[in-house]
């Protein structure tokens, strides 16, 4: 298999807001999410990259890296790296959900 693939993960969340949602520029959402991800040392070390963000959802990619291989015979990435990706992606999705909820209540 190719070493040029990345492992995308998409997390979804839903929130019900009673007040009318205000439009938030996508640039602000991306900036907030990137700051969240860059503040976490392991996400920087694993070269995680935000590819999309929205209200209660995030998509983060982590490039294949031979240093992360857990099984040299198969080339499968270690469960710890995959778990870190899932945790970071879910955290970003929750952060965006909270961001949208706070904006809606303003």
Sheet with most strands: strand arrangement = 1-3-2
* Poorly predicted segments: 1-8, 13-21
State which percent range the strand residues make up.
15-25%
> Level of helix content?
40-55%
End-to-end gap: 50 Å
How many strands appear in the DSSP assignment?
5
The Rg value, from CA coordinates, equals: 16 Å
User: Secondary-structure element order, as H and E?
Assistant: EHHEEEEH
* Sheet with the most strands, sense and barrel status: 3 strands, antiparallel
Structural class: alpha+beta
Average predicted local confidence, pLDDT: 76
* Molecular shape: elongated
Number of helices: 3
Question: How does this structure look, described?
Answer:
- The structure is a single chain.
- It contains three helices and five strands; from the N terminus they run E-H-H-E-E-E-E-H.
- It is of the alpha+beta class and 106 residues long.
- The longest helix has 26 residues, at 79-104.
- The termini are far apart.
Descriptive terms for the model:
106 residues; alpha+beta; 3-stranded antiparallel β-sheet; 3 helices; 42% helix
SSE arrangement:
Blueprint: E1 6-12, H1 26-38, H2 41-45, E2 49-54, E3 57-63, E4 69-71, E5 76-77, H3 79-104
Antiparallel strand pairs: 1-3, 2-3, 4-5
Helix pairs in contact: 1-3
Concise account of the structure shown:
The protein has helices at residues 26-38, 41-45, 79-104, and strands at residues 6-12, 49-54, 57-63, 69-71, 76-77.
């Amino acid at each position: 298999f190719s070493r040029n693939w990345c492992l995308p993960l998409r997390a979804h969340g839903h929130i019900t807001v009673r007040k009318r949602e205000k439009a938030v520029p996508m640039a602000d959402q991306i900036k907030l999410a990137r700051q969240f991800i860059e503040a976490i040392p392991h996400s920087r070390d694993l070269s995680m990259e935000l590819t999309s963000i929205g209200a209660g959802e995030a998509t983060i990619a982590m490039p294949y890296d031979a240093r992360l291989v857990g099984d040299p015979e198969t080339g499968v990435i270690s469960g710890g790296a995959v778990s870190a990706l899932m945790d970071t992606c879910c955290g970003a999705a929750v952060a965006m959900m909270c961001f949208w909820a706070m904006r809606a209540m303003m």
